[in-house]
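Question:
When you can, review this sequence-structure pair and walk me through the tokens.
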Amino acid sequence: MSAADAVQVERLDEVWVVTLARPAVRNAVDAATAAALYQAFLDFEADAAARVAVFHGAHGSFCAGWDLQAGARLAATQGAAAAEALMAEDFDPADPHARGPMGPSRLRLSKPVIAAVAGAAVAGGMELALWCDLRVMEADAYFGVYCRRFGVPLIDGGTVRLPRLIGMGHAMDLILTGRQVGAEEALRIGLANRVVPTGQSRDAALALARELAAFPQATMRADRESAYAQWDLPLGEALHQEWQRGRARIPDALQGAARFAGGEGRHGRF
């Protein structure tokens, strides 16, 4: 299967759907697929008409992680040193367009991405889901650091995003044990944002994406970026960067106030 077949992009007005489709390996990612995923999200970022992306895994799985069979074949044909060099290429931490082994995992986008999680989202696949802003999870889907069994490290953001998302205690449990985490637990600990019936994650994520796409975009993106930027800042600096981004959106706020005064959006209506 070619990378073009493995990574499919649908443009549904302002929402893009980026789909992994490698059913023979439960959407595991090899080098060519990682490159295609990376390019798909670069294209999404560059398209001024695109507002929100849904990251979807076809055929009942989100992503089973790095394609270990492909890695073994690479080592067998090119040698372990060559395979290691390909996997362990360094990157510039200041580069917002850095590429990870799984593809987009080091990209810092200005627009939200929603993961539609069906079936397995494990190892590197879990890291891709963590890279997304929100996770809509099917009732029988599951997460897990399954690579723990084979000595494969988390190098696509898992040890960074997981503690930030669910706290150090929960993160250590998942990172050290590699155990499976079902939808109910994922929702309880904050790993999932929504749980939907089996087979409905794509449609539910699309509905959520369209809801986000309908909001005033500049303000939503400013608030999103402020939330990400505050992590390593002292409180005063964090509040200041929030103000700097927010004050540029005051004209939007005044326009919104006028719409509210005219009767739009009363009583919490969206």
Summary: Strands lie at 7-12, 15-20, 52-57, 113-117, 120-122, 134-138, 142-144, 181-182, 194-196. The first helix runs from residue 3 to 6. The CA atoms of residues 88 and 255 lie 49 Å apart. The radius of gyration is 19 Å.
